[in-house]
Amino acid sequence: MHFNHYLLEGHTYFIAALNERLSALRAQGRDIISLIMGDPIEPTYPPVRDAVVAALQATEISQYPKNRGDGFYLEAVANWALRYYGQTFDPAKEILSCNGTKEAIFHVPLLFDWSQGQEIWIPSLSYPVYEASARTLGIPVKYLPLSAETGFLPDLDSFSAEEWQRCQLFWINSPHNPTTALADRAYFEKLLALAERYDFLVCSDECYNELYYTEQRPASCLEIDSPRWLVFRSLSKRSHMTGYRMGALISRNHEVIRLLGKLREPIGVGTPTFIQQGAVTAWNDDQHPRDFAVGYRRKRDLISTALKAAGCEVFGAQAGFYLWFSHPHCSSSEALLQGFIEAGLLITPGTAFGSDGEGYARLTYCVTQEIAEEVARRAAQVKL
Amino acid sequence: MHFNHYLLEGHTYFIAALNERLSALRAQGRDIISLIMGDPIEPTYPPVRDAVVAALQATEISQYPKNRGDGFYLEAVANWALRYYGQTFDPAKEILSCNGTKEAIFHVPLLFDWSQGQEIWIPSLSYPVYEASARTLGIPVKYLPLSAETGFLPDLDSFSAEEWQRCQLFWINSPHNPTTALADRAYFEKLLALAERYDFLVCSDECYNELYYTEQRPASCLEIDSPRWLVFRSLSKRSHMTGYRMGALISRNHEVIRLLGKLREPIGVGTPTFIQQGAVTAWNDDQHPRDFAVGYRRKRDLISTALKAAGCEVFGAQAGFYLWFSHPHCSSSEALLQGFIEAGLLITPGTAFGSDGEGYARLTYCVTQEIAEEVARRAAQVKL
Question: Residue A28's domain spans which residues?
């Protein structure tokens, strides 16, 4: 038996590696607050849980969920998009459910034929699933350099026509994990024009889009009339529902949605109907993400002030729940990590997201207010 | 953009195609009972639902589920295997959870490298996901002929050493969908010896294993000491939990489990923790599948007697909840299907599972007792 080469490589999903380090430190009796997981530890929007319980109590007989999502769920997503963006989507032809966006991100490359050397383009600092999916499937990846100079967005002018011609799937994630960079509408429009010219699909992972601290909400492909985007939206962050596994795929390209539906049928990624019933409650309400954002903003201010007091430079931080930062004394992420561990804080070294992350680190502030205050106390005393 | 060739082919997942036919017939005012879906319409084992509700009510804060399964879930599977088979498995090294076996079946070929022309071997009549997965991933498939003469099991003596050398993954499904054929222990042992000699993995889909009507339970790889099998077990049929999406992967091959765990990490196929908590209740009880089997056996007897009265030949039917049958007057499955539609019953033509199904059809009896009685009345009057 010959195993998949990618699985045989020594790499470990960075969270697993950091958690091992955390266990070792705690085994030594060290008091460490872990700030590595983007997994909210505040309550799910309460009506969701009540609705799931009620749906379960009404479900004596369990039946297979629909892979593309039940009609009532797809309608709720369409209603949300209409309310929130003023855009009309056809639930039957333009929306699919997903069992959390992680699985949908992993599977989307299977939509395409890759036999002609086409590539998947991925920002050099990224949510690791884009790369894990491409590498597991043996698809060539092009890593797009990111730096503070480019505002941590790929420089779309830096690639030649010959390079663009090999692109078949372009990953963009705004608000960006890990750097919090925001693509504005002009950036999306430019990218979509390139997609039209060079015949590729823009996969826009917008899972942090409803947690923002600016007056204007972040730009979204959903507002741009083009058949060249496929948008991934999630309830995980928006409604604190990471453990429910529920999201949506949206596109104006009917062929993309039709073939994605066909692809996903035998994969069996339908979400239990009782969870879809609860999720409707989440999509139907636009206020709770705003309320959550008020709390996150307070924690961001607290911790980011402390980081600056310790001499760190903090980038962006206008959306999501991450802080991306560096320190003039640290040219390596490992040095940053060591300094924070000394102060009792576990952060994620920027290199966990790619080599362009050297010298940076990511910290999550999706923690309780009490922990955020302790994090700020410790962060202010970090010696680097 | 070049789409995946397999998705562009005209094929439709057979249930979707038959459901379209059903809608058309009902739109004409026809009274049709559909017997095509293997989706139990009797209640889930009740303590499961209560346990899921209790778990949800205790879960104010939702967190990502563990992809490999929570420790308490893996322990429950290990305890079941020890009680039921007298076999000890290490939950940390020999068991993984899955989000229903469908997704696990779809994903398992990704465990391997296929660049040397290795093949996936699939019985010519099969659960369609084995083929859909291989074809979506572009892996060569070898279809193994099945017939009444071979008891609807592949004839392991009919392949040359040269052929076996190309096999890397062998799908076996016993009790078999759609034919209900049972592989006995000797068959499994012979297959596993071939796997050892020719270096392949036997993927044993045993999702119907606990619904049987013989004195002895069906054979399982779990009872055979070999590192050459990977077993797929499901709560869908055993505990009437199709809508909860919960199963387990078991192997004595630690490298297979380790790499599968690694493969499945970025796919994000963890099942919500509150569902795992309920599922433990299902694995902890061995009596309810026996009770369910009593009901299924009664329905099987009723409907199979009626089919025989109409002149059909019924095969196997010692396990699962399908009847696989033919009729001396019908050389085509379409003729069988037409005759049954005339009598108000929708069945699945054998050809939906592969060309060796020509002249056969499958009917599910996972229906209520009341419907089973009506099905028997109609089946006895089928004119072929």
Answer: 5-44+288-380
